[in-house]
Write a structure and sequence with these properties.
The protein is of the alpha+beta class and 590 residues long. The chain folds into 3 domains: 81 residues; 184 residues, no CATH class; 248 residues, no CATH class.
């Protein structure tokens, strides 16, 4: 009896040491019973204490009984989750891991998914869009082999199994591809007349470096040298849920299934510019993964704030490659509001400028941005979920998204009007009330009018045909095809009254302009729709669209408002539109 009592006390002691981690594993409905039992035990202990004071019972005997009871509850309810008492769940975790890697080797990815706790696609499942991507993916799929190491370590409802995995490490091909590209180019130069290689400025003719790179990839990757393959010892974690063992898809395992990369698609897109970076100077392509919930963090050293327009112009001059043959609507001759500043940010992938000026007596905050790649124009929803009840300020959402520049969206959660698209999915289809602004994979703004569609099927056809990523519904359309749109009656936004306004427009390819007109003491009426339409047109917008106004109207740069928000208080909202840098954080640090 004494040994049994000691064993139970040891179990209880271990429970107390691991109580925090243990409770996280216990289903909520069981935890409720445990809490109730705990309260009951505490009350019993108090009663025993009171009775012992009155000498009606022996305190030690009664208290021991309560402790033993609590330990028994732990033994049968809590301890299995902590691993202090062994459970014997059905199935062999080692067999599950073996089956998973067998499925990967056999390219049966659907069966592999069924054995994990995640349905997120593996990089090895990527569908190639060209011959070079196919070359990489074929090697990745064919390159897997594995060896089970030892027996699984089982602790309650958790287990781990060591596995040695061989896989095709895509980044390991980089140096060889680069060297082969340079060798191919040298051979081409030596074997062709100069005018078939260079133009009059000694730049390579179009297509030559691309061709040399393509040949290098097919030769190097297709050859599949032994040192392109990595051997990783993985500790595959498992949990026993729903009556079966499931593999936990952690970062280490996901990296192996992505061929040693964070994202196989992004690797394939960036591999070319990496290989050619030392051959000749070419603009390097940076892409923010479509599925990413936030962009790379911008380099804080590249933000600036000044009242000197020439300082900003000096920054603009460094962005000649990003701007190409486009010109900014901003210029040093713009007269900013006295006592305010021009804010700016510039790296190889984005140039953003904000300033305040009075136009026809109205207090306007303007923002202009040029990006390198369409993936830098993005939408952020609160909690990254359509319909989330959580609302946040625009600045908080912008900081979460690592936004360089952000503008408020349509505040979709406040009203049920209009068409809403998020992550390519049609989330709401109220078709009669509002004009809709769509943003596609090319970074183009597209419009449809209220009542244009008859049903949700037509909207889905439009989304698919135009490769739409997201859409907002407030409106109206202000400028389309370079022409100001006449607005008569419109259901939202008190269009013909003085009100704080917000709008987003497109000047040119990957070149955007945003404006807020806000209430101030000097301009208490805000602005009218026809005013902001005219101003967006005057700043060169070929397309422009009104966003939610009033207290929602807000422009945010580097995580803070740059316009005078109504009543000096940010509204809690559901969404923003934002622009991010595409520079990987490691390169920014360098």
């Amino acid at each position: 009896m004494e040994r049994l009592y000691s064993a139970i006390m040891l179990i209880l002691a271990e429970a107390l040491l691991n109580i925090q981690g243990t409770f996280a594993l216990i289903p909520s409905e069981i935890r409720q019973y445990i809490y109730a039992l705990g309260i009951l035990a505490l009350l019993s202990f108090i009663i025993v204490l009171l009775l012992s004071i009155k000498k009606k019972i022996r305190f030690f005997a009664a208290a021991s009984g309560i402790i033993v009871s609590c330990a028994s509850v732990y033994l049968f309810v809590i301890a299995p989750y902590a691993g202090t008492v062994s459970l014997h769940p059905e199935g062999d975790p080692k067999a599950v891991v073996n089956e998973f890697f067998t499925d990967i080797c056999l390219e049966d990815y659907e069966a592999a998914h069924a054995l994990t706790d995640s349905r997120a696609a593996y990089g090895v499942e990527m569908i190639p869009e060209n011959d070079l991507e196919e070359c990489y993916i074929e090697k990745l799929r064919a390159g897997y082999s594995y060896e089970m190491i030892g027996e699984p370590l089982v602790k309650g409802l958790r287990a781990s199994q060591n596995v040695k995995v061989r896989y095709f490490n895509m980044p390991s091909t980089g140096m060889d591809v680069k060297a082969k590209t340079m060798a191919n180019l040298d051979d081409y130069v030596q074997s062709h007349p100069k005018d078939e290689v260079y133009d009059e400025k000694n730049n390579y003719l179009d297509g030559i470096t691309d061709l040399m790179y393509e040949r290098a990839v097919k030769s190097v990757v297709g050859g599949g040298k032994s040192y392109f393959y990595s051997f990783d010892l993985l500790q595959v974690e498992m949990e026993y849920t729903d009556g079966r063992w499931q593999i936990v898809m952690d970062d280490e395992l996901r990296n192996v299934l992505n061929g040693g990369t964070d994202n196989t698609g992004t690797f394939c897109e960036n591999a070319k510019s990496d290989a050619l970076s030392e051959v000749i100077y070419i603009p390097k392509t940076y892409v923010v993964a479509e599925e990413a919930l936030w962009g790379p963090a911008p380099d804080q050293a590249l933000f600036g704030k000044t009242d000197d327009p020439e300082e900003v112009q000096a920054v603009v001059d460094t962005a000649w490659e990003l701007l190409g043959d486009q010109e900014l609507s901003w210029s040093p001759s713009i007269k900013i509001v006295h006592g305010t500043y021009i804010n700016y940010y510039c790296d190889d992938t984005i140039l953003a400028i904000t300033w305040r000026q009075r136009i026809n007596g109205e207090y306007c905050t303007c923002a202009e941005v040029k990006i390198l790649d369409p993936s830098q124009l993005r939408r952020k929803l609160s909690m990254d979920t359509f319909g989330s009840p959580v609302e946040q300020t625009a600045s908080a959402l912008a900081r979460q998204a690592n936004a360089v520049l952000a503008v408020n969206g349509d505040y979709y959660k406040y009203r049920g009007n209009g068409i809403c698209v998020y992550q390519r999915e049609l989330c709401r289809a109220e078709l009669r009330t509002t004009d809709t602004c769509y943003f596609n994979t090319d970074g183009e703004m597209l419009f449809t009018k209220a009542g244009q569609f008859k049903n949700a099927d037509e909207v889905n056809e439009y989304i698919e045909a135009n490769d739409v990523l997201f859409a907002v519904s407030f409106g109206p359309v202000l400028v389309d095809n370079g022409e100001i749109q006449n607005v008569g009656y419109y259901a939202l936004g008190q269009v013909h009254e003085g009100y704080s306004r917000s709008a987003i427009g497109q000047i040119d390819e990957l070149h955007y302009f945003m404006m807020n007109i806000n209430h101030t003491k000097a301009t208490p009426d805000g602005g009218r729709i026809e005013s902001i339409a005219q101003y967006m047109y005057d700043f060169g917008c070929q397309k422009a669209y009104a966003l939610d106004g009033g207290q929602t109207a807000e422009l945010v740069m580097n995580g803070y408002p740059v316009n005078p928000v109504d009543w000096s208080s940010e509204r809690m909202v559901s969404d923003i539109i934002y622009f991010s840098t595409a520079m990987p954080e490691t390169e920014e640090a360098e």
